[in-house]
Amino acid sequence: MVFLCVFLPFLGFAITSIFGRKLGDRLSQYTTCIPMLLSALCAFYLLITHYGSELVVPLFTWIESGHFNVSWALRIDTLSCVMMCVVTIVSTLVHIYSIGYMSHDSSIPRFMSYLSLFTFFMLML
Questions:
Q1: % the chain with pLDDT above 70
Q2: Is the C or the N end of the chain the one with fewer CB within 10 Å?
């Protein structure tokens, strides 16, 4: 669930940045808004189910040398769950607001994909 919460915005970015011109404006907006909404729901689920506990989701080992081990992992506690909820809710609202606000833009798929990439980087912090 942590993996989905963090990487769904990246999935929206990847799909829209690769296929954005073929998808068109409206479908690109849906392709970025729906993963953001699902990510917000996952963040709320994590907050409810893991309140007061810590969760470590290892992704991969970066450096391993003897007893020295550097791995990339998602470490979730109550504070990070609350921040994930805040980031995903605000970003979902910004995505939905951008549908109307950026309607005059000539490259809507690119804007929406970069907005999802920004959200992914905020969640990775």
A1: 100
A2: C
